[in-house]
Amino acid sequence: MSRQSSILIALSFVAFISLGLPDGLLGVAWPGIRNTFALPLDALGLLVIFFTSGYMLASFFSGALIRHLGIGGLLSASCATTAAALLIYAITPVWWLFVLASTIGGLGAGAIDAGINSYVDKNHSERVMQWLHASFGIGVTLGPIIMTLGITLTASWQAGYVFVVLAQALLALVFLVTRNMWQGTVTVAQVHDNVATEAPLIETIKTLPALLSMFMFFIYVGVELGLGLWAYSLLTIARNIDPQVAGFVTGSYWAMFTIGRILAGWYTHRMTASAILYISILAAMVGTLIVAINMGTMITITGIALIGFSIAPIFPCLISDTQYRVGPNHVTNTIGMQIAAAGFGGAVIPSLAGVLARIYSLEIVPYYLFVALLMLLASFMLSHHLSLKAARQDCL
Q: Are 315 and 213 in contact (CB under 8 A)?
């Protein structure tokens, strides 16, 4: 591997760490944000929806942006955009401007995600891709810790955002300086040129396996973000756990998530994707029940850590398993549909958790996530059955 390639991989990992930081910050900051703006508990859903709108918009136009700016230029602009959004979070006294900033943050995050994935997918191995997504886990692990320390030292949730603004601005400068190093890497347009002719999008949409795939990504990302966003509020508001402890517990969820992703780079080639998915979903369901039963702080921490570790390989395994579920003629269309559904689920499911928490209590959240995981398991079982049936028919 050349020195330039090593530098670009390192920068890619750092970019994904920065991508995860804001997600980790918000869950811990939310109780303070609520108090500052005098908001209801479920107002968090509004932020998630506006952020997702920006994220999906930037992802959709990422190909054109890469062609116009280059990957390095796009990453620099994206980090600068994210820094601007977080700065608005830290200084605005107006709620509607805070919500608007979440859309700006989504634009930055979506562009970073699409740009880095495009580069790694076409220039490096599957193991690098696994570890790239583990870097996201490092970011969301550090986020709660940074916010908890900021609140502890300054009694202000804004301090955590200021620190990450500085980090994002520095990263934007690094990408600007190194933008010429990214020239010559494969762009999204070139990737599409190399894809074999597939079924029309409308035909893919009509197939049951593709729709099931979309539903699975909708559920999975919603569960992943749902617990990450609501764990801190559940522990501090509903269970009266010390905020510092709750902040580090929330960080432990993302830490175990990161460890799971790192290990996935080693063992995914030794087990089938289907086997990993069954084990992961069932283990995550056990973890949600442990959290729901509430048998003490240490047991609850164990349940949260188990969920984080268990769900870690689900997203990449579902991606890898796509061709077997839908067939080669629909794989490219389905992957795009899955990513869109994932973004939508990441907005809807955590938002609905907030609505249920306001109506009932925060204790409803782990039961709600258990039901969502049960739906994910049922969907995968049906999808797996259909793929096996199709394979048997092909053999006849």
A: no
